[in-house]
Amino acid sequence: MNIQPVILVVEDEEDIAELLRFGLMRAGFAVTWVKNLADARSSVKKVLPDLIMLDWMLPDGQGIEWLHQLRGDERTRPLPIIMLTARAQESDKLKGLEGGADDYMTKPFSPKELVARINNVLRRSAPQHVAQVVEFFGCALNDDDHTLSQAGVVETLGNTEFKLLKFLLTHQNKTFSRTQLLDLVWGDHVYIEERTVDVHVLRLRKILQRFAIEAHLETIRGVGYRWRSAA
């Protein structure tokens, strides 16, 4: 079962929002829809989405100004953001992209192209949320059934171990603290102890032992964990 990325749609026009909701859910995304910036801020404060689809002109302000605020906040700076707006001037597009948008689309839009753009942005910014088979050291980590396989050996991973391994594999050679892993893998709205990360890393290591690759899941003393890509 794939992990559904959550898209926050910030759009005040109901017909467009409904079109977005239908197309995105059909493509396998979970959708949260808000009509204004106040509700968008409240939603992001409670839980970070995996991507924001942001209109420029909203009833209580300009999306571009909120974009600047998001990029200026350490918690929300890495959030993938696509602007979807009726403002089609080249100067507006440049302003949006230079202001921190990962992509910029104009209305009217093709739902298929929009889904492709979202997947491209997630592939760059948050590859752990893109359905795929990750291959490494002769192994394959499969989104469809949460299995890790190698030369006929197949192990089904629990949901948390799967998400943890996929995150590390898609961010190889980068060290993450326990707090960062809680935010990025479990979600920053989940309130659990940092010790929980150690428990799941231990479980994951036991699984990796079957494939003789557990040494690549490294503990960086005093910091956290990383996946080492070099053989």
Automatic annotation (TrEMBL):
The modification 4-aspartylphosphate is found at residue 55. Residues 6-122 form the Response regulatory domain. Pfam families: Response_reg, Trans_reg_C. The keyword Calcium does not apply. One of its GO terms (cellular component) is cytosol. Signal peptide: none annotated. Keywords: DNA-binding, Phosphoprotein, Two-component regulatory system. The keyword S-adenosyl-L-methionine does not apply. This is Phosphate regulon transcriptional regulatory protein PhoB. The lineage of its organism: Bacteria, Pseudomonadati, Pseudomonadota, Betaproteobacteria, Burkholderiales. The gene is phoB.
